[in-house]
Amino acid sequence: MKSAILQTATRYLLPILLLFSFFLLLRGHYYPGGGFVGGLVASIAFVLHSFANGTENTMKILRYKPLSLIPIGLGISAVSVTFPLLFGLPPMTGLWFEEPIPVIGMIGSALFFDLGVYLVVIGVVLTILFTIALND
């Protein structure tokens, strides 16, 4: 669909949706939200751009194939899960920095786990949808 209205709206909505998805990611280890929901919102932003401008143009924005995000996200999540083992703690134990970061707040292993989930969700959703779109 090559609608001028949708293309113009997408130009403004893409950065807003990506910022909102990042907000959901950062909020997730304190309140509802997190990597899964944030990843879905980011995926929706790119799918909306794909509807307005075509899948090829959206792939140019991403620079890398979405499939490459999956192992990166799995690696980040796996490291955050096993990192407490280095301190003699059980896996998935929350480790937190002593001082909060001004805008973000407390940073800990839960945030890195959420970041891994965020990347995996974006990679899976966009790989599936772009594969379907390119094969039509």
From TrEMBL:
GO CC terms, sorted: plasma membrane
TM helices/strands, residue ranges: 12-30, 36-55, 67-89, 101-134
Main location: membrane
Domain annotation Na+/H+ antiporter MnhB subunit-related protein: ranges: 5-127
Keywords: Cell membrane, Membrane, Transmembrane, Transmembrane helix
Superkingdom of source: Bacteria
Location in or out of the cell: Cell membrane
InterPro entries: CPA3_antiporter_subunitB, MnhB
Membrane topology of the entry: Multi-pass membrane protein
Protein family (similarity comment): Belongs to the CPA3 antiporters (TC 2.A.63) subunit B family.
NCBIfam families tied to this protein: PRK12509.1 (NF009163)
PANTHER family in UniProt: NA(+)/H(+) ANTIPORTER SUBUNIT B (PTHR33932), NA(+)_H(+) ANTIPORTER SUBUNIT B (PTHR33932:SF4)
Record-given protein name: Na+/H+ antiporter subunit B
Source organism: Sphingobacterium phlebotomi
Phylogenetic classification of the source organism: Bacteria, Pseudomonadati, Bacteroidota, Sphingobacteriia, Sphingobacteriales
